[in-house]
Design goal:
heterodimer, A: 256 residues, alpha+beta, B: 244 residues, mainly alpha, two-stranded antiparallel sheet, two-stranded antiparallel ribbon, 4 strands, globular, disordered C terminus, hydrogen ion transport (chain A), transmembrane helix (chain A), membrane (chain A), ATP synthesis (chain A)
């Protein structure tokens, strides 16, 4: 066992050459490949991380948008509900108002109808009463009702002499209105009676179909009336009472 | 019995005898270089790695990991040096099983050359890392009294490296030769298998110790240095050499 120093030097040289060769053909290419692959992996990981962060951001944005959209939808739905409620209330109020208006119109119409009916009833009653009283007076006593009414008016003028004189001061004429024309004799008696109480005041006779039977005397602003209206009113009230009692009886009969 | 291949001259070149140790070293170098060239010649990022390239990557990254475990702050030059030591010794020892091939590591001249290389490389790495002043200061640590002991320790390292590797490889070859005469059909096979194992272990130990020495020279003074399988130790004079 000995050391050959020439061989030692040669082996040192061989080893250094081998270090260079392996560095040139083994370590550097292998490590370079590993480094490039690790760099590529790192780049891909970085890219994946960025993609992940981007996806997370997109997800967060999507969730935020979805929440905002949901909130907008809720707000819109609430607004629509509120508007629908207001519109419903308005329609109901309008319908109620219209119903109230129609009810009032109906009541007005009924009142007018009632008034018209009452007026016609009143008129028909007055005519009927007047015709019946006149016929009865004529048949039983051979007298005319209007003549007696005129004569009765003459009798009623005495307590009103002062009022007649006062009214005549501002009047140009006196007007005696009847439902039908008065007989000539009755006219003369009325004229004589008025001349006696209000001298010099002309009297004019007129007829009015719409007026109740009787006599209405107008002197300026003064008006004196002797008609069958009060009797007609009583007759109408009597009829209304009878009608009301008859209707109630029917209702009771149907309801009972 | 011939104990060293240095005595066998294969041919003469320019009047200089080229012995079997050198020739076999060239063979090992050629095998390593050609294999590396063949595997790495088509090394491009767009070409997927094949099994040979993957094998070399495993070997290189394994060596790199070992070096980084011992000295995290080491440069790639340490990898080139220690890795070449490991690959050369390992392949030389593995070729023990080839009939008629005498591993160059069974020559004391080869192991001495490798030990001298380590002996020279250690201060060079230390100087390149710490500068001349910083490296020389390590010889008087912890006090100047330790200077002669540190110098003796430095040389004894190289001698122990050389003798250890040579003794292990040469003894394996000698034992195999002796047993071949005693039981020619059984023991040589067992010894060759054992030789393969011990050859790899010796290559590993040699490369690791070289790395430890280099790292102790490059590491700052009193900085812990890790050794594989051991707790970190302090100082450049407290590394345990792993003997067989």
């Amino acid at each position: 066992m000995s050391i050959d120093w020439v061989t030692v030097l040669a082996q040192i040289a061989n080893f250094l050459v081998l270090v260079w060769l392996l560095k040139r053909f083994l370590y550097k290419p292998i490590l370079k490949g590993i480094d490039s692959r690790e760099a590529e992996i790192a780049a891909r990981m970085s890219e994946a991380t960025r993609a992940k962060e981007k996806a997370a951001a997109a997800e967060a944005d999507f969730v935020a948008r979805q929440q905002k959209l949901q909130a907008d939808q809720d707000a819109l739905a609430e607004r629509v509900r509120e508007q629908a409620k207001q519109q419903r209330d308005a329609l109901l109020a309008e319908a109620h108002e219209k119903m109230e208006q129609e009810r009032q119109d109906t009541q007005v119409h009924l009142a007018r109808e009632r008034e018209r009916f009452t007026s016609e009833l009143y008129k028909a009653s007055a005519e009927t009463l007047y015709q019946l009283a006149g016929r009865a007076l004529h048949d039983l006593a051979d007298e005319r009702l209007e003549e007696h009414i005129a004569l009765h008016v003459i009798g009623k003028l005495d307590p009103l002499s002062d009022e007649l004189a006062s009214a005549a001061e501002h009047a140009e004429e006196a007007v005696a209105t009847t439902h039908a024309a008065l007989p000539e004799g009755a006219r003369h008696e009325v004229e004589a009676a008025l001349e006696q109480r209000v001298p010099g005041l002309p009297l004019r006779f007129a007829t009015d179909d719409s007026q109740s039977p009787g006599l209405v005397l107008r002197i300026g602003s003064l008006q004196l009336a002797w008609t069958v209206d009060s009797y007609t009113d009583e007759l109408v009230e009597l009829l209304e009472e009878r009608l009301a009692s008859g209707e109630s009886g029917r209702v009771n009969a149907h309801g009972g | 019995m011939q104990l060293t291949p240095d005595e066998t001259t294969v041919f003469t070149l320019w009047g200089l005898g080229i012995n079997e140790t050198v020739v076999n070293t060239w063979i090992v170098m050629a095998m390593l270089t050609v294999a590396s060239m063949l595997v790495t010649r088509k090394l491009r990022p767009d070409v997927p790695p094949n099994r040979w390239r993957t094998t070399l990557e495993v070997i290189v990254t394994g060596i790199q990991r070992q070096v980084e475990d011992i000295s995290p702050q080491s440069s790639r030059h340490v990898l080139y040096f220690s890795g070449t030591l490991f690959l050369f010794i390992a392949l030389s020892n593995l070729l023990l099983v080839v009939p008629g091939f005498t591993p160059p590591t069974s020559s004391l001249s080869t192991t001495a050359a490798l030990a001298l290389s380590v002996l020279i490389a250690v201060p060079l790495f230390g100087i390149s890392r710490q500068g001349i002043g910083g490296y020389l200061k390590t010889y008087i640590q912890p006090s100047i009294i330790m200077l002669p002991f540190n110098i003796i320790s430095e040389f004894s390292r190289g001698i122990s490296l050389a003798i250890r590797l040579y003794g292990n490889v040469m003894s394996g070859a000698v034992i195999a030769g002796i047993l071949l005469g005693v039981a020619p059909f059984f023991f040589p096979v067992v010894m060759d298998v054992l030789g393969l194992l011990t050859g790899l272990i010796q290559a590993y130990i040699f490369a690791i110790l070289a790395t430890v020495y280099i790292s102790s020279a490059t590491a700052p003074v009193h900085k812990p240095v890790k050794t594989p399988g051991h707790e970190p130790e302090r100082g450049r004079d407290h590394h345990k050499e792993q003997d067989r």
